[in-house]
Design goal:
mainly alpha, 48% helix
């Protein structure tokens, strides 16, 4: 559904959604974890949402209701959550670099000239890169929802 007109998306907008989703691949779906209406990047960029045409035919496991956790007045501000996310991402990046360098898993020659890497070093770099991506995605998702230290939802005072 087009969020602006509340009608069906135009052919041009549907094509734009397809192109964005094709270019980003599964990364497009990461934002579904942190947005109020479970929108993917291609939905956000085209101001559209996927809607159920006939709610009577839909089963409860086939859809998710809008998130209300962001309406909580005890939730930290967006700016605070963004600042904490950036701090965590910096720490994760430094941690991955330190693990890769300090553990001696990758030689300096490999880091300086990629073609000189052995198969084991390539596998290590791929593992470190995948771990960095996974930790970054988890950090963004949990922190945006107020679940990580430094950005938790404030406790209720008795």
């Amino acid at each position: 559904m087009d969020d602006r007109t509340k009608g069906n998306v135009s052919l041009l907008k549907a094509f734009a959604r397809f192109v964005i989703k094709s270019l980003l691949g599964w990364y497009s779906f990461i934002s579904m974890w942190i947005t109020r209406r479970h929108q993917a990047v291609h939905d956000l960029m085209t101001f559209s949402t996927v809607q159920i045409r006939d709610p009577a035919k839909a089963q409860p496991h086939q859809y998710h209701l809008e998130r209300t956790v962001f309406d909580n007045p005890k939730m930290p501000s967006r700016m605070r959550r963004l600042a904490v996310i950036l701090g965590y991402l910096l720490l994760i990046s430094i941690g991955v670099i330190v693990v890769g360098m300090a553990a001696g898993l990758v030689s300096e020659a490999c880091l300086a000239h990629r073609p000189r890497c052995s198969k084991a070093e390539n596998a290590t770099l791929a593992t470190l890169g995948g771990g960095w991506i996974l930790l970054s995605v988890l950090c963004i998702g949990f922190d945006w929802r107020g679940k990580l230290f430094g950005c938790r939802v404030r406790a209720t005072s008795a």
